[in-house]
């Protein structure tokens, strides 16, 4: 399993779009640092290599993509098989890093210079804290008009920004408390060492004094 790391810790909705190449049943994973109660949308598309044209085809019929979403403590949020292109959604239940893994279900091989290889290009677009505005408008058109819905969309994004800012504030507070605890422990340990040294010195002086008196040297 290869890991692609993207730590998303900003105070605005983010979109990460890129593509990568994968071999036969090769799993690719990436890490997203997500606040709690945040919706994440992922859109992917598989392109198959055409040996005749020496390029990637726009579509890859017959291929499938297995998507797995887990938290770092092993909780499985999503595990589903899709077609050659699709969109997956999930909502984080707790803040922290989430692992998004994609694996093709194809075993078809192509030939390169006598070596048989499986080559595909996977386009992936990850949106954190965003919703599909057009789809949501279509679902809500019987209840509210487009202008009202867009206003609600903006209010939702403002709430998302506040939520992410609070998440960052909590992270900074935890880091500050950890630093203060560490400094306090170091200070107390230094103080204990000084007390031990002073006690040993007093004991040695008293022992030597008693020794000299016993030997009538003083």
Describe this structure in words.
- The protein has 218 residues and is α+β, with helices and mostly antiparallel strands.
- The chain has 2 domains: 17-129, GOLD domain (Jelly Rolls), CATH 2.60.120.680; 132-217.
- Helix content is 35%, strand content 36%.
- The protein contains 2 helices and 12 strands.
- The strands form 3 sheets. The protein has a 5-stranded mixed beta sheet with strand order 1-3-9-6-7, with no helix packed on it. Strands 2, 4, 5, 8 and 12 form a 5-stranded antiparallel beta sheet that branches.
- It is elongated, with a radius of gyration of 30 Å.
- The termini are far apart.
- It is found in: Endoplasmic reticulum membrane; Membrane.
- Its main location: endoplasmic reticulum.
- Residues 27-128 form the GOLD domain.
Count of structural domains = 2
Mean pLDDT: 77
CATH H-level superfamily title of the largest domain: GOLD domain
Secondary structure category: alpha+beta
Beta fraction: 35-45%
User: Which spans have pLDDT < 50 for at least 5 consecutive residues?
Assistant: 5-13, 109-117
What topology, given as strand order, has the largest sheet? 1-3-9-6-7
**Number of beta strands:** 12
CATH architecture of the largest domain: Sandwich
Q: Find the CATH topology of the largest domain.
A: Jelly Rolls
- Report the helical percentage: 25-40%
Count of DSSP helices?
A: 2
Straight-line N-to-C gap: 79 Å
Query: What is the subunit organization of this protein?
Result: single chain
CATH class group of the largest domain: Mainly Beta
Element string (H = helix, E = strand): EEEEEEEEEEEEHH
Radius of gyration, whole Å: 30 Å
């Amino acid at each position: 399993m290869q890991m692609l790391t993207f730590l998303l810790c900003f105070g605005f909705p983010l979109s990460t779009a890129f593509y990568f190449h994968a071999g036969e049943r090769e799993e690719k994973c990436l890490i997203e640092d997500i606040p709690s109660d945040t919706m994440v949308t992922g859109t992917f598309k598989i392109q198959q290599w055409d040996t005749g044209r020496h390029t990637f085809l726009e579509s890859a019929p017959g291929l499938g993509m297995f998507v797995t979403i887990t938290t770092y403590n092993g909780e499985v949020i999503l595990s589903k098989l899709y077609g050659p292109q699709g969109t997956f959604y999930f909502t984080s239940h707790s803040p922290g890093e989430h692992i998004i893994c994609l694996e093709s279900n194809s075993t078809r091989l192509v030939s390169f210079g006598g070596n048989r290889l499986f080559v595909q290009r996977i386009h992936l677009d990850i949106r954190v804290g965003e919703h599909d505005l057009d789809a949501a408008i279509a679902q809500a058109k019987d209840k509210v008009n487009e202008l009202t819905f867009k206003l609600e969309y903006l209010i939702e994004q403002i709430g998302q920004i506040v939520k992410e800012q609070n998440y960052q504030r909590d992270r900074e507070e935890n880091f500050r408390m950890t630093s203060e605890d560490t400094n306090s422990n170091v200070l107390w340990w230094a103080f204990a060492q000084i007390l031990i040294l002073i006690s040993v010195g007093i004991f040695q002086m008293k022992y030597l004094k008693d020794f000299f008196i016993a030997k009538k040297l003083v």
